[in-house]
Specification:
Elements (H helix, E strand, L loop, with lengths): L2 E7 L8 E6 H4 L18 E4 L13 E5 L4 E7 L2 E2 L3 E4 L2 E16 L2 E5 L4 E4 L5 E16 L3 E2 L5 E2 L14 E7 L8 E8 H6 L9 E3 L8 E6 L3 E8 L6 E5 L3 E8 L2 E5 L2 E5 L3 E5 L5 E4 L4 E8 L11 E2 L5 H7 L4
Protein name: Homogentisate 1,2-dioxygenase
Amino acid sequence: MGLVHEIIDGFDAAEPVRRIARREELLLGAPLPSPKRPPRSYRPIEAVHFPAHFVPQGFEPPKGIFESDHLRIERQTMAGFRQPFYHRNCDVDELSYQVHGTRTLMTELGSLDLVAGDFSRIPVTVAHDNHAHDDIHILFYVPAHVAELRAPVRTSEVVLPPFPGWESEVRNLMTTECLGGPEHDIVMTPVDEQMLLDQARTEPERINVLRPSDGTDETDWLYRSAQIRIGHTAIDRSNGRTYRTHRDADDIQYQISGRRLLVTQLGVLELEPGDFVRVPVGVAFTSIVTEPSTHLTVLSALTVPQVAEADKTGSALSVPELDRLRPSE
């Protein structure tokens, strides 16, 4: 009999947490037959994969991964060029995580260079543009306002020119609503780029770069809003004998480095860098890790459907099969 524990928690970290002993083969098992209420068929866990390394290509719109009325998550990649326009959000803070390459972020609150591992947040209504090199970044559109939970490691500054070869132009400025989603632009008009970037000289606020703590074998929470928490999770090694169930939140993950086996009541997936996955509310899950692994963790108090086509589907593994994959004690 494989004994494990299930931790049941809530979106609010201050809420009580329950720890329950379970038999693993039953926790992951199929329901017993019932003539009065036949078990339904549940959709298995899925993952969406994009390369974690840079692949040269022309400019393309961001790829939507998860989307609801209160959260959008996208993946964007850019070579050595700019966006076609400046962008202003009417209703959301726009957060990002830099996966690969470098990106110069130019805003009305100053400019700064982002490198792999950097988190940043553009406050609602702040116009911005990007100039990137071999870039991959993840975007989170979250209804304002989003609180930053740690001190910044860097901040934006008034930098002119913001990148080598820059010359001031009249460019388009697009304003959007509805979480900045496709087809939700309100108006697009020309803007004097020099005046836009000079606005930072009169603004007291700056764009902050956050980074997770080193050596933290847990989730390091960096941002929080009324319904969203965003953090960075590091796992050096795990036998996966402690499961977690969120009673009121979806758990969205993006694998940054290392490989891990995600074990859930809806199936088992081997995750590699570039994988996105969503563990629905109420589903127990754990990770079996034999090498250091890092991933982004996004908790959403409301369901966030997957809008991208899945590349992987979870399968069932028996407890003896899982035991063979666990690191030695």
